[in-house]
Amino acid sequence: MAEQTQIEIKPPQPAHLSDAGDDQVLEQQVRFFKSGTRKREDSWVISLFVVLHIVAFAATMFVNDCWQNSHRDCAIKVLGRLSFQPLWENPLLGPSSSTLDEMGALQQTFLANHHQTWRLFTCLWLHAGAIHLIINLSSVIFVGIHLEQEFGPLRIAMVYILSAFFGSLVAALFLQNSPAVGSSGALFGLLGSMLSGLICNWKVYTDKLAALSALLLVAMINFALGLLPYVDNFSSLGGFISGVLLGFVLLFSPRLPRMTEKKGGFFDYGVKKSIRLKQKLDRPVLRSVSFVLFGLVLAGAIVAVLHGIDMNKYCSWCQYINCVPSNRWSCNTKVTACQVEL
Length: 342
Known about the structure:
The protein is mainly α.
C-alpha cells in the first residue's frame, strides 16, 4: 500500500502590529473628498451653525431697515425693509456700520473705552453683507461638512467654536474706528484643522495635492474678501492658527469605511482593534505640544485684550491687511443718514 503523505496544516501566524498597521493604511487609502460613504446625519453640527448665521443676518437686515432709515436710498430696493445700504457705504450688500455696531460687531471704542467684552462673542455670528454671507457659508459647508463626516461632530464643533473665539481675540488687538465682524475666524479654523488632518493622516489619502489646492483656493478667496470694509482678516488669521493647533490635537484618526471581514476574521478583528488603539495613542509629543501651545496663545490673547493692548501702535501698516482704501468705499466709519441711534 502506498504511503500516505501527511500534510501539516499550520494555523495562521499573527502579523506584527506595525506591519498590520501599514497594510491597513495601504488597504484603506481613500480620497479626501470621497462622497457617498458617510451618513447625512453626521453633518448636523455644521448645518446648525449655518442656520444660526443665516438667522443672524436676517435679523441684522431687519434691524437695519435701510428703506426707512436712509429714505429709500438703498441697493436692490425691491427687497423693501431688507434692502441693502448703497454700495459706496457697504460694497458687500449689507447693513450700515451703525447697525453692525448695534448688533454686536467689534469696534475699538466700545471694547477699549466701554469695556463691552460681550462683543467678542456676538461678532462671531455677524456677516458684513450678503456677498460675505454666501461666500463664507458656502466655504463652511464645503469644508466643514466633509470634516464633520470624516472626524465626527464633537471634534469639529470644538474646532469651530474655539477657532472663532480665538479669532475674535486676535481681531480685538488690531481694531480700528470701524465695526468688524469675525465670522470668518471659524471658517479659517476649519481650514487650519483640515491642513493638520492632512498632515497627520498623510498616508491615508490619495488626493492630497487636490485637497491642498482646494484649501488654498478657499483661503485666498475669503482672505481677499477681508480686504473690503467690515470683514476682519485678523480674525481669519487667528482662526487659522487656532485650527492648525487644534487639528494636531483632535484630528488624529479619520473614520475610515469599514472593511469587509475575511475568513478567520476573529483574529483580523483583533488586529484592527489594536490598530485603532495605536492610532489614538499615536504622536503623543505632537499632540501634547500643540495642546500646550494653544493654551498659551489663548491665555496670552485673553490677557492682552483685557489689558486693552492696541497692536496698531506697533504695526502701522497692519490696517491694510483688514481693509484696502479705495475711492469706491471707505475703510473708516462715516456718519450717514441711515445710521441707527444706539
